[in-house]
Amino acid sequence: MQDPANELPTQAEPAEDALKRRPIRSYVLRQGRLTEAQQRALETGMPAYGIEYAPVPLDLAQLFGRADSSKIVEIGFGMGDATAQIAAHLPDVDFIGIEVHTPGVGSLLKQIEQRGLGNLRVIQHDAVEVLQHMVPDASLDGVHIFFPDPWHKKRHHKRRLIQAGFVSLLCQKLKVGAYLHVATDWQEYAEWVLEVLTAEPLLQNTAADYAPKPEYRPLTKFEQRGINLGHGVWDLVFRRL
Ligand SMILES: C[S@@+](CC[C@H](N)C(=O)[O-])C[C@H]1O[C@@H](n2cnc3c(N)ncnc32)[C@H](O)[C@@H]1O
């Protein structure tokens, strides 16, 4: 759900001015067809495992009923298969998945219900705003961003999620020693991400440049699509100083 205050002209303001101040988003909301199972999961799973967007900081310990576990945020989980798989393999770690695409949210909720994953919650909203307003500073042990939209065309590069300002926001939310893991199948975006993360003084690369794939990351849907197209895959893992 988008914040209408960001999108709509007010009575006193012409539409073109409202458009000018409209924030640049890293996604386009697609009308995806919902399967019946996804629709059902949205109805039953959202009250149990969903978190409504509200510009109020979350109490992460209270949310998961435990304070001592690591807290990881995944941005743009797509259909959520990899997210559910990681959460199932790491029951001692708590995960918050953020995604705007409704069929994807339904798909992940369905998997949470089927697998009974008590360590995974879902927020359907722009991750930039969730980070800004809901995630407390220095509260995260890790951030996963797997196969973010590469926005290939130069005139669309401003829509790329990985930008200096956003990375600085992520650093504010990561604990000292926490990690940021980005994976992409688009070489030019991999080079862009490497440059942006390397330029952030609060981050240190864990590798000389690209990292070996951490074993917790399973193959994702978009990764498989990229591999089928003959793309390579680049993982980048940085630590918060
Ligand atoms: C290319 S897909 C990759 C999905 C998944 N991680 C995978 O590897 O299969 C990128 C996803 O990020 C989501 N996304 C992009 N910008 C986002 C944002 N600002 N907040 C939440 N989700 C976002 C899109 O809706 C899309 O589903």
From TrEMBL:
Key words, A-Z: Methyltransferase, S-adenosyl-L-methionine, Transferase, tRNA processing
CDD domains, per the entry: AdoMet_MTases
Listed GO CC annotations: tRNA methyltransferase complex
Highest taxon of source: Bacteria
Signal sequence bounds: none
GO molecular function, one term: tRNA (guanine(46)-N7)-methyltransferase activity
Pfam families, sorted: Methyltransf_4
Annotated pathway: tRNA modification; N(7)-methylguanine-tRNA biosynthesis
Entry function: Catalyzes the formation of N(7)-methylguanine at position 46 (m7G46) in tRNA.
Protein name: tRNA (guanine-N(7)-)-methyltransferase
Organism lineage string: Bacteria, Pseudomonadati, Pseudomonadota, Betaproteobacteria, Nitrosomonadales
Gene name, Swiss-Prot/TrEMBL: trmB
